[in-house]
Structures are given as C-alpha cells and as structure tokens.
Amino acid sequence: MNIRRFTNEDAESVSALIRKTVGISNRRDYPEDVIDALIDLETPEHVQERAGWTHFYVAQEGDLIIGYL
Fold first, then answer.
1. Model pTM greater than 0.70?
2. What is the mean pLDDT of residues 42-64?
C-alpha cells in the first residue's frame, strides 16, 4: 500500500469511494433523502475543490485507491 498526496487525476476514484462509503455506512442512521443528498454532493469536482484547501491524501493498492484522508 502506498499513501501519497491527492492529485486531480484521483478525483473520479475518490468521489466513487466516498459515495460508496456514505451509502453503505450511513444508510441506517439517516433518512434516505439525506443520504441521497450527501451522495449527490460528492462529485469529482467537489472532491477537487476540497482538496484545494486542505492536505488531502489517498491510500493506493496497485492501481486502486482504497482510502482517503
């Protein structure tokens, strides 16, 4: 596993991972419309914007991004 700084090329993969994680881990705790709104918010563009004003890292296994922080 490799941990490295986020690049804009990672945005699509990170967005998909965030959307999947929110859908799985929060679905029982929040109403469906809240989950859908959170998932809709996490676009690749939103990920890039957020990464632009903070330290943003990804965990990569081979070619697959498996985590972010």
1. yes
2. 96
